[in-house]
Design a protein that fits this description.
The structure is a homodimer. With about 250 residues, chain A is an alpha/beta fold. Chain A has 2 domains: about 5-60, Winged helix-like DNA-binding domain superfamily/Winged helix DNA-binding domain (Arc Repressor Mutant, subunit A), CATH 1.10.10.10; about 70-250, Rossmann fold, CATH 3.40.50.1360. Chain A has helices at about 5-15, 20-30, 35-45, 60-65, 75-90, 100-110, 125-130, 155-160, 185-200, 235-245, and strands at about 20, 50, 55, 95-100, 120, 135-140, 140-145, 150, 165-170, 175, 180-185, 200-205, 215-220, 225-230, 250. In chain A, the strands form 4 sheets. Chain A has a 7-stranded parallel β-sheet with strand order 6-5-4-9-12-14-15, with helices on both faces. In chain A, strands 1-3-2 form a 3-stranded antiparallel β-sheet. A 3-stranded antiparallel β-sheet of chain A has the order 10-11-13. In chain A, helix 6 (about 100-110) runs parallel beside helix 7 and helix 8 (about 155-160) runs parallel beside helix 9 (about 185-200). Chain A is elongated and about 80 Å long. At the A-B interface, strand 2, helix 4, helix 7, strand 6 and strand 7 of A face helix 1, strand 2, helix 4, helix 7 and strand 6 of B. Chain A binds a DNA duplex (30 and 30 nucleotides) through helix 3.
Chain lengths: ~250, ~250
Amino acid sequence: MTPSQRRKDITSHVHATGKVDIEQLSEMFHVSPMTVRRDLVLLEQDGKLIRTHGGAVSPRSLTLETPFISKETKHVTEKRAISKKAVQMIPEGASILLDSGTTTLELARHLVNRKDLTVITNDINLASEMVNSALHVIVTGGDLQNNVGALLGAQTQEFLRSIHVDRFFLGAHAIDLHAGVTSPTLEKSMVKKLMMEAAEETWLLADSSKIHHKAFSKVCALQDLDGFITDDRVSKEEVRLIEQQVKTFFVEGG
Amino acid sequence: MTPSQRRKDITSHVHATGKVDIEQLSEMFHVSPMTVRRDLVLLEQDGKLIRTHGGAVSPRSLTLETPFISKETKHVTEKRAISKKAVQMIPEGASILLDSGTTTLELARHLVNRKDLTVITNDINLASEMVNSALHVIVTGGDLQNNVGALLGAQTQEFLRSIHVDRFFLGAHAIDLHAGVTSPTLEKSMVKKLMMEAAEETWLLADSSKIHHKAFSKVCALQDLDGFITDDRVSKEEVRLIEQQVKTFFVEGG
DNA sequence: TTCTCCTATGTTAATTTCAAACATTTTATT
DNA sequence: AATAAAATGTTTGAAATTAACATAGGAGAA
């Protein structure tokens, strides 16, 4: 039996049983535990399995048990309706700035059929969505936030200070009718503020579930915005409170 | 902090970084390694993570790796072998610069299990691959090249002039044993040159099919490189010609 | 309050596993 | 046949794991 054949057998055995231990493999293939260990190191590098203490497990066996319902799947119809409305309001030839986030990601998806637009973003997920389009896309650069895709940091800020665009679409995780728009870190709100300064107009995009939440660091008051697009799942009283602060569109969303 | 809250925090931290070690968690939550270990046992039973030797990994981090889908590009096995070799040569704690391209994309995929590395790239596809890792990733910023994913332009160049890294991994489309490394546009070769200047060492990564091709704009001569990793599908005469110009590793790629 | 029980955590020691270095065998190449 | 390269085994010290026991801190009852 060749080493590569043995590794293939180990791989299929791991996938079949979900779990193996080194002692067992050592006996099964009549090789020393050290050799098995070396095989497992190679197979782990290829992503075929995950090494554990004393053995290895199949990555697939556990992924089936933990279905990750990410927040991306929440309020999709609302986000879609909001971003659709936003796209309609972008004139040909405009330069726009897109915040990081799932709502703006939807917006980017709706943008890919447009042309003659310059789109600037600090989110690599948005950039990836637009890479196959005819859009002129500019990425700010900066430190990549793990598991998120946003770019932040001094480099991002420096770039934002050097540009000017027609419109900024702001995403938000927390909106309070009195405290305004807030974000979880100083860093994020700093970048959002700079984006507002770089833009002629700022429009807030957020589904109504974000309302009545407060986070740590203030971005701006609702009065500072030029517009707000959200869905219609808000009470009359809320509508009144919002509309007296900012020009708002309540789109139908689900 | 209650035990259950700590476990939730551990869970989200594992999912955020993809990988944690016990010592690190012990310090982070100010509890003994034994307590962390007990937490990890519970969380593993819930399928929230997979315990490894010395820590735990997120089950999700491995589903994204899926080394089974990338059949679209040519010479996958060669590229994989080349990037594997390259990864082995990166010391812990290093800062590296990754060129845009499919070979460096493979390299990025092999890097996601590493930590304590700073990785700088001008390709959003590479950045996307590394977003769920524990790596410190920095994106250069610049104009997005449609259908490619590379970032180029004045902004990219300005950033590259402001940094210094330990090692640069250069990808290439055309290598000639006399003309050296060339690229199709002035813009691209300019960025590559700046990357070389920003790095202590430059290593060329390219499968052997790239040899004996010339493109428009010169990047560098083979002698300017500190190393070259390619596959072994080259003739003896070629080996001789290459080796007298640059330190080279010919990895097995079939 | 004071006592008791129970959970959570820390500590220690013994066991197991891991990883590095070196030695040996096998395989491939010239 | 000679040599190099790859694969495997062995040894050894370091590291992680586990189990067992000890301690601290609440929650609830008398």
